[in-house]
Amino acid sequence: MAVAVETNEPQGEADISVRPASEVSWEELQTVFGTRGDAATCQCQRFKIRDRDWSGVPVEARAERLREQTNCGDPDAPATSGLVAFIGDEPVGWCSVEPRTEYPRLMRTRVPWLERDEDKTDAVVWAVTCFVTRVRYRYRGVSRALAVAAVDFARVRGARALEGYPMVVPPGKEITWGELLVGSHSIFADAGFTEVTRPTLRRAVMRIDF
Q1: Closest residue by Cα to residue 19 from 179, 152, 186
Q2: How does the average pLDDT of the chain come out, rounded?
Q3: 159, 99 contact by CB (below 8 A)
Q4: Distance CA 209, CA 109 (A)
Q5: Cβ neighbours of residue 65 closer than 8 Å, sequence gap 6 or more
Q6: Which of 19, 169, 203, 205 has the highest local Cβ count within 10 Å?
Q7: b/e per residue, 158-196, with b = 16+ CB within 10 A?
Q8: CB atoms < 10 A from the CB of 67, how many?
Q9: For 194-203, what is each residue's pLDDT tens digit?
Q10: What does the pLDDT read at residue 152?
């Protein structure tokens, strides 16, 4: 089913806070992912598992991998794989943000590297690969707040640059929310990212250097 894209101005003001996933509970994170749909099925593992292995990893195993990667409930953990957005005490959104080398499938995907002389193994370049917003909280600026927070999160942890690989959607067009898990062009632009390349008509590489 196609739905309007979260590329317009938020439809309502929201007081959004963002925390590292290690500082929230696993139950709060799973509230964001839900129990059905693309986010629940993927568990933010699409860029973590190579294509040839994807079908052999059940949803339960993907969720367990995510739990280990995020270190939910352990604020003293040395690393976590993403951020969780809240409106008040309600968990409403997620974005993944880690060193680019933590995404094996990204390393093997051809599109992000077209027209670029880029060292894929440079671990101080980080990437934002996924956004999830609970249905009832869409169009309230959740993804934008997460993108802005991801910039500060990566910078503080020593990243030299941060990249994203968003969908490019012409104004007025519609797209499925599953496709938009990588984020929209405007979300990254609003967070200070600059387009580096346009490898396909529907995909851009955007980057911010620190």
Answers
A1: 152
A2: 89
A3: yes
A4: 22
A5: 43, 45, 48, 57
A6: 205
A7: ebebbbbbbbbbeeeeebebeebbbbbbbbbbebebeeb
A8: 16
A9: 999 999 888 9
A10: 97
